[in-house]
Amino acid sequence: MQRFLQITSLSFRLHLLLGLSLLTSVSLAADNVLTLSVNGVDEALKRNILAHLGAMPDSEVQRRAFLFNVEDNVTTALQSMGYYHGEVEDHLVEKDKGPWELTLTVKAGEPVKIQWVDINFSGEMLDDRAFDKWLADVNIKPGDTLNHGMYSDVKSQLVTLALARGYFDGEFTESQIKINRDLNTAQISLHFNSGARYHFGQVSFEGHTLEPDILTKLIPFKEDASYSTRRVSALNRQLLDTGYFSNIKVIPQLDLAKDNQLPVKVELTNKASHSIELGLGGDIGQSSDKTFDPRVRVTWRTPQINKYGHSQETSLEWSPDRPKFLTTYTIPLTHPLDDQLKIRLGLQRDKYGVTQIYEPENRDFRNTGQLESTKYLLGLLRQQRLDNQWLMSYSLDAIREEYTQSDVDYNPSFYLAGINFSKTTRGDNSLDPKSGYRQTYSLDYADPYLGSETRLARLQAKFKWIDTFFDNHRIVARMDLAANLANEDELALIPPSLRYFAGGDQTIRGYGYQELGPYLDYIDADGNVNREVIGGRYLMVGSVEYQYYVTPTWRVATFVDAGNAFDNNQFEPVVSVGGGIHWISPIGPIKLDLGVGLKETDTIDRSWRIHLTMGTEL
């Protein structure tokens, strides 16, 4: 499977190196005036002391000011972390040449312990469970060492939550820390009155050319619903997902609020009428002859064709043997995102499996190419999101495919009626989710009474599971199951695009794209023995991958893939193992993997493949 990679910036590394150079020069300048060492405290206190002391001086004037304030700054740093009986001894070595040397020996003393914490709520927030959850997670409790920074964080968290939940008139009626230096105890009081909660008023949209009803359906809350920033973000996300707009501003108008009703103004900027995207890429070693297969893709998008929100996307991809054309016209129905009709028109030339000829002098088969087909597609698909968040789609596809198998030309036509259900659950909304689960089930049916070449039922189920343990350890597992139910005498009439093959970065790494599957031998017109991988009626492949985050943006991985495409009583599983390195880029993970096939089949030698892929795994 091909991937296209776009390089958007080459200047980042140069800017980073320049920044490091400047940082180094500043450090050297400071060292020429004063050097500092802090002893007697643990690393946490030391970092806090250095933070309160601030930047090192880089002139004699700054040095005098720095030395004058050292004791006060260290005392403040100690008290901010609950040490009110600290002592500081300073030793300064003045030099005629070179930097002066300042050594601080700090004795923190016994810390102040929290005796009790009094957090009291009043107002409508008493009926809001979000504050109960926040209160259960508060990380200040009796017996802890007093930390002014943590106290400030708690206050900030409470105010932030109140604003996020629409309590714009909330205020602290009491917020203080009482410290008894003799007993080394502290008493914390936080009393907060939320007042009344605001509700959403009218939502108005500006700067668009759509029918107003289309945008109204995107509002994920009703008028007079309780305000929350989560609902504001949901509206922003809905508008963004339509693809109509290049800029979106959702503005709660607090200054226009009346009777706790908060109007919302949405400022929109339409995307350009047309956009063209160029992609360059290639497959290395994916074909049977293991050559480099260059690819060029041009994608033309019209995000909004008319005031009813129609859109189109046309993709033209060129490669020497696999040109593809697909245009999709999308019409919103009852909801711009959750109910869409898609009209698809496509042309695709593709290659499958391996074709070989037997050479008596070598007593072996030699690769001569692959099974080639040309597919014409006209399809209708309606896609709906159900209330339980399942995505349901039903479709009707008209397919005509031309191919030559065993020296016989075929051009069957199929009219496939299909239904598909899928659901994706993500632990977070990032491009590299820490956890998640995807399940997909589909059924397609074709019948001669409806104009198809033969009767065919296609059943498919796909699963992917992701979980992360102990922050840095990530597991990705997947399984694909599929079956074609058809008359055995008419299998040759099922086109290659509807059969099952294995191999490639989405099934079994270490083998080429779609080169694995059942084969047949036949005698050609010249009397030669030929062998051809024609695909199977069934597919069973699975994978388990372990990933370890070396840094938040880099990880290493190792994996095992297994399975194959097969026919009745012919399951011959193959296994590949490998590993790779992944970069979690701003546009999603970019993965460079090496897969090694562990098994030699009747048509494929033991092989290895390098796979470069990009995009989220869910």
TrEMBL record:
Signal peptide region: 1-29
Name of the protein in its database record: Translocation and assembly module subunit TamA
Location relative to the cell: Cell outer membrane
Span of domain POTRA: 118-193, 198-266
Domain TamA POTRA stretches: 36-107
Taxonomic superkingdom: Bacteria
Subunit structure: Interacts with TamB to form the translocation and assembly module (TAM).
Stated family: Belongs to the TamA family.
Gene3D superfamilies attached to this UniProt entry: membrane protein fhac, membrane protein fhac: a member of the omp85/tpsb transporter family
Domain Bacterial surface antigen (D15): 313-617
Sequence intervals crossing the membrane: none
Entries under InterPro entries matching the protein: Bac_surfAg_D15, BamA/TamA_POTRA, D15-like, TamA_POTRA_Dom_1
Organism annotation: Shewanella oneidensis (strain ATCC 700550 / JCM 31522 / CIP 106686 / LMG 19005 / NCIMB 14063 / MR-1)
Keyword Ribosomal protein: no
GO CC, any one term: TAM protein secretion complex
Gene Ontology biological-process entries: protein secretion
Keywords assigned: Cell outer membrane, Membrane, Signal, Transmembrane, Transmembrane beta strand
